[in-house]
Write a structure and sequence with these properties.
Number of domains: 2
Bound molecules: 2-(3,6-dihydroxyphenyl)acetic acid, fe (ii) ion
Structural class: mainly beta
CATH topology of the largest domain: Jelly Rolls
Helix content: under 10%
Number of strands: 28
Radius of gyration: 24 Å
Distance between the termini: 77 Å
CATH class of the largest domain: Mainly Beta
Shape: globular
CATH superfamily of the largest domain: Jelly Rolls
Strand content: 25-35%
Largest sheet: 7 strands, antiparallel
């Protein structure tokens, strides 16, 4: 079947209810997805575009090229092996040489070695929400690194970025050869074209785009802001549920992966740029076609989104505060059992019912490092100062806990069942690795120099003459 006939065929054969279309159109808003976590999906825009019974036929249907993308080493055990087969109009390799991107994004880094510009501090850090720039800034140029540890060269570690942007990516796509990106939008929706199809996310949802997958971010709402964790060590998994049982927390069927979609726009010689992050550096490669030219694909290596409203929390129903790991949505484990390179943890709306218990987060020091963000509302542990779009970092063993206002209020409160409100959503990227912090994060005007003061007011309530109140048993 000749390629030039594809357009007319597309009209006839709407296999997924989607038609390849270079224009941004209403159908982007009514996207249909495939459900399941890391399932072996099959999807085709044109009926019969997926070869049957084999992956690399001598001649693929419709004259397409077959191309594999491997997200794990070929020899990884089957239950962790991830790869997809893409059937595309032109293969990814059809581009001019890679050149260092100019100008590059100097605030997007992956080097956290002792010789890097990033430095370690035990100081508890908190940032106010960043302003979205006035100047045209797309998602890639708007990314800036806050902190991180390890190295993509060693395939171990992670980095935390934030983004502020106002312009859609036009005539370019991005691929990250360093790690998977888990994106948490906080302001503005993201309409994301990927090689596997289109995904639309809004604040309250997250999206994961894995190593190597090309994507472009459109900003239908203009000014946009959010958080990103990049993981060098492997892919996100659902946590084991252990004694919770077979259900609860994030349900695999609530993870949504795109259906195949493609566009055929000719961008002219060198008119389209693939921006490729590799070893922490950005490279550009020019080509004349859109990389979103995959007519069909199958496999289990594909981006997905998840609505945090679907998270089914399990928590204490009698006394004491549960450790935050009970709210783990996704995890990237290290080789040490139970120790994560990154856990993505959410603090969802839920009922607080614990008796004779200090219900908000306890005071603590943690061998893990905790980066937190707030998507909307007020976080249960901080009465003020931790704002939507803001962030905090409590590094390994740096003490922290609720602020003075929250403490004093809580110990006076009558502990009736109460609801942590629906309109509050905080999250944490928790890591066993010690992050270094970038110079621009440390010198940012958003850095709150008075953060420590939220605990300075914690006064002694100690009274050795006061008899302990009996706890009913
Ligand atoms: O520090 C934080 O606010 C995050 C957190 C929440 C919680 O409920 C228990 C421990 C913890 O680190
Ligand atoms: Fe904490």
């Amino acid at each position: 079947m000749a390629i030039e006939n594809i357009n007319s065929l597309m009209e006839e054969l709407k296999v997924n209810g989607d038609v390849g279309n270079a224009k941004r159109d209403a159908s982007f808003e009514e996207l249909d997805y495939q459900r399941g976590f890391c399932n072996h999906f099959s999807t085709e825009v044109l009926k019969g575009a997926l070869p049957v019974g084999q992956n690399s036929p001598l001649k693929c249907p419709y004259g397409l090229y077959a191309e594999q993308i491997s997200g794990t080493a070929f020899t990884v055990p089957r239950n962790h092996n991830q790869r997809s087969w893409l059937y595309r109009v032109k293969p990814s390799v059809t581009h001019e040489p890679f050149h260092p991107r100019e100008p590059t994004n100097e605030r997007l880094v992956s080097d956290f070695s002792s010789t890097s510009a990033a430095s370690v501090t035990p100081t508890q850090l908190r940032w106010k929400p960043p302003h979205v720039p006035e100047a045209e800034t797309n998602f890639i140029d708007g990314l800036y690194t806050i902190c991180g540890s390890g190295s993509p060269f060693l395939r171990h570690g992670y980095s935390v970025h934030m983004y502020t942007a106002n312009t859609s990516m036009e005539g370019c796509a991005f691929a990250n050869a360093d790690g998977d990106l888990l994106i948490v939008p906080q302001l503005g929706r993201l309409w994301i074209k990927t090689e596997m199809g289109r995904i639309q996310v809004k604040p309250g949802e997250i999206v994961v785009v894995q190593l190597g997958i090309r994507f472009a971010v459109e900003l239908p709402d203009g000014p946009s802001r959010g958080y990103v964790v990049e993981v060098f060590s492997g892919h996100f998994q659902l946590p084991d549920l252990g004694l919770i049982g077979a259900n609860g927390l994030a349900d695999p069927r609530d993870f949504l992966t795109p259906k195949a979609w493609f566009e055929e726009k000719n961008w002219g010689i060198g008119g389209f740029t693939v921006i490729h992050k590799f070893g922490g550096a950005l490279f550009d490669a020019k080509q004349d076609f859109s990389p979103f030219n995959v007519v069909a694909w199958h496999g289990n290596y594909a981006p997905y989104k998840y609505n945090l409203k679907n998270f089914c929390p399990y928590n204490t129903v009698l006394f004491d505060h549960s450790d935050p790991c009970i709210n783990t949505v996704l995890t990237v484990p290290s080789e040490r059992p139970g120790v994560a390179v990154v856990d993505f943890v959410v603090f969802p709306p839920r009922w607080s019912v614990a008796e004779h218990t200090f219900r908000p987060p306890y005071f603590h020091r943690n061998c893990m490092s905790e980066f937190m963000g707030l998507i909307y509302g007020v976080y249960e542990g901080k009465a003020d100062g931790f704002l939507p779009g803001g962030a905090s970092l409590h590094n390994c063993m740096s003490p922290h806990g609720v602020d003075t206002v929250t403490y004093e209020r809580t110990i006076c409160e009558d502990p009736k069942p109460s609801k942590i409100p629906d309109h509050a959503l905080a999250f944490m990227f928790e890591s066993s690795l010690i992050p270094r912090v970038t110079p621009w994060a440390l010198s940012s005007p958003q850095l709150d120099p008075d953060y420590y003061k939220c605990w300075i007011g914690l006064r002694s309530h100690f009274d050795r003459a006061k008899k302990p109140e009996a706890v009913e048993s």
